[in-house]
Write a structure and sequence with these properties.
- The chain is an alpha/beta fold and 262 residues long.
- It folds into two domains: 143 residues, Rossmann fold, CATH 3.40.50.1860; 108 residues, Rossmann fold, CATH 3.40.50.
- The protein is 39% helix and 17% strand.
- It has a six-stranded parallel beta sheet with strand order 4-3-1-2-9-10, with helices on both faces. A four-stranded parallel beta sheet has the order 6-5-7-8.
- Helix 1 crosses helix 10 and helix 2 crosses helix 3.
- The radius of gyration is 18 Å and the shape is globular.
- Bound molecules: D-glutamic acid.
- D-glutamic acid (DGL) binds next to helix 3.
């Protein structure tokens, strides 16, 4: 029997990670869960995010989904809630970590940028990550909620308000010395091409999708098996989405009281 992998995000951003995992393990069964009722997570408190992830664990149990592995394909949720959620379930959980380490290894200018949500950028997790892997270089932090909204709209409608995108990138005022920009939000790779175009390909954009896929493969003990059979992918959302692109089941997450102790 193939493994059942559930990929979770606040919205559609985690599909950028899902695509990498599907390439590595094509014959797994996949579910994609978006907690879009609380989108954007970048503007939520740590306790709220912990409660929602506890609700997800409860949902998996209540629906008897037999999930073998959960991927929290959301930097915001990973940086703020991963350790709390691991305490309440035996299901292995893989989180995403912004690609600060590889960025620090390849920068020529010794100056990298991290572009993420406000919650990720201000988390103590990021402080530690930078101290551990980028202490000998300069790391500038940039946060945006607007880019999450633009990525959601672009994914579902294929329409991008390029003026809004450019206004947001201009507001961020990315330092000219930066040669590698870490996309520390899983929504941002959806906009990778237009972001790269804005910088005239002068800045290399790095995300952690491929690294997560590698980690998932190693945990499930799968080798790259390209001959797999495609199984239907189930999408769940906590708020209605007007999409003719995906068949999405609308569900509710309850905040289980057990989470209050974290
Ligand atoms: N995709 C999420 C991340 O990687 C964040 C989007 C949001 O703010 O909800 O951080």
């Amino acid at each position: 029997m193939s493994a059942h992998i559930m990929v979770f995000d606040s919205g559609i951003g985690g599909t950028t990670v899902l695509e990498h995992i599907k390439q590595s393990i094509p014959d797994a069964q996949y579910s994609y869960f978006m907690d879009n009722a609380l989108l954007p997570y970048g503007a939520q408190s740590q306790q709220t995010i912990i409660n929602r992830l506890c609700g997800l664990i409860q949902f998996i149990k209540d629906e008897s989904l037999n999930v073998d592995l959960i991927v929290i394909a959301c930097n915001t949720a990973s940086t703020s809630a991963l350790s709390a959620v691991r305490k309440i379930t035996d299901i292995p959980i893989v989180g995403v970590v912004p690609a600060v380490k590889p960025a620090a290894q390849i920068t020529q200018s010794k100056h990298i940028g991290l572009l993420a949500t406000p919650a990720t950028v201000s988390s103590s997790y990021i402080d530690v990550l930078i101290k551990e892997h980028a202490s000998s270089i300069t790391t500038s932090l940039y946060s945006s909620v607007e880019l999450v909204t633009l990525a959601e709209t672009f994914f579902f409608t294929q329409r991008l308000d390029i003026e809004k995108l450019h206004a947001e990138l201009s507001r961020l005022n990315i330092n000219n010395d930066i040669d590698v920009l870490v996309l520390g939000c899983t929504h941002f790779p959806i906009l990778a091409k237009p972001i790269s175009d804005y910088f005239k390909a002068r800045i290399e954009l790095l995300d952690s999708g491929a690294a997560i896929a590698k980690r998932v493969s190693s945990l499930l003990n799968f080798s790259d098996n390209q001959a797999g059979i495609k199984k239907p992918l189930h999408y769940y959302a906590t708020a209605d989405i007007n999409s003719d692109k995906l068949a999405i089941k609308l569900v509710t997450l309850i905040d289980p009281s057990q989470c209050e102790e974290y």
